[in-house]
Specification:
The complex is a heterodimer of chains A (253) and B (175). Chain A is 50% helix and 2% strand. Chain A is mainly α and 253 residues long. Chain A folds into 4 domains: 48 residues, no CATH class; 30 residues; 56 residues, no CATH class; 58 residues, no CATH class. A two-stranded antiparallel sheet of chain A has the order 1-2. In chain A, helix 1 packs across helix 3. The longest helix of chain A has 28 residues. With 175 residues, chain B is mainly α. Chain B is built from 7 helices and 2 strands. Chain B has a two-stranded antiparallel ribbon with strand order 1-2. In chain B, helix 1 runs parallel beside helix 3, helix 1 crosses helix 5 and helix 2 packs across helix 3. The termini of chain B are far apart. The chains are: A mainly alpha (253), B mainly alpha (175).
Chain lengths: 253, 175
């Protein structure tokens, strides 16, 4: 029994399994008809394989497509990488925005604060009045770039500095820190306004005189009156020398 | 070795190893170099864009062959509808320069075979191309085309018989 074309074709394709493969090989050794047909099919197979597109026929396409793919795919890979790295979910964006707002708020706050503490620069040499005078009661005097090179703060005495500040309309409150009194605790003068209030009290006390009934006398009445009394009802012996003789008052009666 | 189709290194390796097969499948189905180039590029772009993971480079190859085969068949069908499929064989690549009478005869046979394959019905053509030009066995072809191995065996043989008939009609002496 001769071999079927299909079997020969499968055998040529190398897909025929044992034991049929060995049987076919044995048959081909003896059957000239089958051997001839086998040769025909084998040659046909070789011709088909010979028509295969050769490597050199698509070298250009191979390179061209790769260049296109590399350009686009590498770009895509990088793009995806960047997206992965820098794309955040909404809450993260919100947090970032909040952080940004806080940052700006803080920067504005500190800038304002630093402005508040900012010391008006007083050009020592020129002596011009600074317009940006703050309401702060503390002023620090320092030399500026506008001062001559030879000039420095050390060249001025404290009196000159105080004078300078006074000329510029500053209300000067000079304080000494870490200075303790030796014997008596002196009242600390917090504001210059307190000082002028005390002065009139002393002067007024001397000028006032009273009559026997304790009524306050006017200036004309004081001159006419023979006997003057003080606030406590004591007799003041001599109306003109009141200040000088006040100490003799208790000895007179 | 796992193959990530979107991974640059994997992609590069797959391209290097699989491109000749893909190109041959596209060309021997369409017999048009420009179309083959477009089809190959499209297949690799799809391969990359899908972001698939294959257990081996062979699996990646089967995927690419399947896509290329389908794209090529679609191209042929479209061209067939336009009734210009057979006549537009002029875009074949120029044969590599060789000397000697033997090679000239060889080239003639080559052209005959290529033209004959174009006359094969689509089903037989795809199987024959995969068998003869993709270095695949029956099992692999069955896997790619989603048909049985015996079906592959039968189709390959039928394709060869039809080719033999066509080549004999055209007076080519198959020796």
């Amino acid at each position: 029994m001769c071999l079927d074309d299909q079997v020969l074709s499968t055998y040529i394709d190398g897909e025929l399994a044992e034991p049929w493969k060995t049987q076919v090989e044995e048959h081909l050794l003896h059957c000239s008809i089958c051997k001839s047909r086998y040769k025909q099919l084998k040659d046909l197979g070789n011709d088909i394989k010979a028509a295969r597109l050769r490597e050199e026929e698509f070298t250009v396409q191979r390179e061209r497509i790769w260049q296109y793919l590399e350009k686009n795919c590498v770009a895509i890979v990088k793009e995806r990488f960047i997206e992965k790295r820098f794309s955040f979910k909404a809450p993260v964006f919100v947090a970032a925005a909040a952080a940004l707002v806080i940052f700006f708020a803080a920067s504005i706050y500190f800038t304002a604060n630093s402005r508040g503490n900012e010391i008006p620069e007083i050009p020592v040499a020129s002596g011009q009045v600074e317009k940006e005078t703050p309401n702060s009661s503390i002023v620090t005097v320092r030399t500026t770039d506008s001062a001559p090179a030879a000039m420095s703060l050390q060249d001025l005495t404290i009196e000159e500095i105080l004078q300078l500040l006074d000329n510029r309309g500053f209300e000067v409150d000079l304080r000494l820190k870490s200075v303790e009194p030796l014997t008596v605790a002196l009242p600390v003068i917090d504001s210059p306004e307190e000082v002028p209030e005390e002065v009139p009290e002393d002067s007024v006390q001397v000028e006032v005189y009273y009559d026997q009934d304790g009524n306050e006398l006017l200036a004309e009445e004081v001159l006419l009156a023979e006997v003057l009394y003080d606030a406590d009802g004591n007799i003041i012996p001599e109306k003109t020398g009141a200040e000088n003789t006040s100490e003799e008052n208790p000895a007179a009666p | 070795m796992e193959v990530k189709s979107s991974g640059y290194e994997s992609f590069k390796q797959v391209y290097k190893e699989v491109f000749p097969v893909i190109m041959r499948v596209a060309y021997h189905v369409t017999y048009n170099m420009d179309a083959s180039e477009d089809i190959c590029q499209e297949a690799f772009i799809r391969f990359f864009d899908r972001g698939l993971i294959f257990p081996s480079i062979d699996e990646a190859k089967y995927w690419l062959i399947r896509v290329t085969k389908n794209l090529s068949i679609n191209y042929v069908k479209r061209k067939g509808r336009e009734k210009v499929a057979v006549d537009k064989i002029k875009k074949q690549p120029l044969p590599a320069a060789k000397t000697g009478e033997e090679t000239v005869i060889g080239n003639e046979t080559c052209e005959m075979v290529r033209q004959a394959i174009q006359l094969l019905p689509e089903k037989l053509r795809a199987v024959l191309v995969l068998k003869e030009y993709s270095d695949l066995n029956y099992k692999e072809i069955a896997n790619i085309l989603n048909i049985t191995e015996s079906n592959v065996k039968v189709r390959v043989h039928r394709a060869k018989l039809q080719l033999e008939k066509l080549l004999n009609q055209e007076g080519v002496h198959v020796s």
